[in-house]
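Write out structure tokens for Methylase.
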Amino acid sequence: MKEIKISEEFLSRMRDLLGEEEFEAYVKSFDEERLYGLRVNTLKISPEEFVKITSLKLHPVAWVNNGFYYEGEERPAKDPYYYAGLYYLQEPSAMTPAHMLPVVPGDKVLDLCAAPGGKSTELGAKLKGKGILVSNDISNSRARALLKNLELWGIENICVTSEEPRKLKSAFGSFFNKILVDAPCSGEGMFRKDADMVKSYEEHGPEYYAAIQKEIVGHAVDMLAPGGLMMYSTCTFSVCENEDIIRLILENHEDMELVKLPLFEGASDGIGLSGCLRLFPHKIKGEGHFMALLKKKSGQVPAEMSRWGSKKEKALPEELSKFLSMISKPLISSRIEIKNDCVYYLPEYFPENGGKLRYLRTGLCLGEMKKERFEPSQALAQSLKMEEFKQTISFKKEDERVIRYLKGETVFLTESEGSKKGWCLICVDGFPLGFAKGNGDTLKNKYYPGWRWQ
């Protein structure tokens, strides 16, 4: 076994959980190298097309259609396609909960413990710009990382909050028809991937997290609309954090029922509660995970959703209107709000009392008014397709100007590329990276400083 110091108490519990023969196979899995994965952003490109254009050596994750393994020595976070939001780096087992929650366009979705965004980005991609995704994390600093990943992914129908579940419940009521609870847990399934998880485990074991999980799921159930589905997941093995939590939900909420998750090759059924799904590192090409899908059979129908803004068209500042005329996809002016000089495109609908929360973002940040000028945002650039903006320039990935642009440097055009005047959308192989301001053959860099290539 690798030099990962695991307590005898944990190993004894795993022996009891798995049985002697399977326990030995689990222990041997620590001699194997951890696996590295990425998940393709289907809002921007299909998995098939991505495989054709990438230089990464990829192998498909058998149970996730847009998931792939990559070689550990590769550096996909230093690839321009990563900066274009074409993929998210994610451990293969961790892709499973969002993949198996059946989100469809138009759903009202809550990711309750969302940071850093691995699961939220997939949920948002499934919505395809319709409906709403509320992504929450109680930690404000982690929620900021979550926001960056959602904006990089190009998701516009988002609300990012940093609140306790109790306060979310008081604002939303039973608003959501899909909820993901990727609960904080003891992390037993990640010991091979991250040895630091062992230290954390020694400080706070399964019983500590089980108490937190019980409180979280209680509020989550209350926020689920009748007929809605809730996915509960952890990256741990302990029954008290997994099957026992599901039993507690079923015992305390007669309107909740367990929906059997389909098993795939290498996946295991729940322990003492059939219908759940377990992933073990000695059975699949990934780390440890647990999932259970529940449905609310009945309950009070949530109130009708209120529209943001009036239905009447708004008069917008001249410079803002001029810029928006360069975007071909329709934007409804009644959903555009200017607050503290920042311009937002609000979600189509929202509950009446949902505005009482601490938001990091509500909808898509279009940009900022600077006196009479308008400067578009990085988030807007990421949400566009190249053909949706009037003036663009696309560089090949191998072109040195791509990295120069990502570093925040001025970019120069060749004579054959012509000249650009005003706002220009910079792309790599047709995928937007950000904006620049053209002045003939010179492009003044407007790439967001906090995202730059390091």
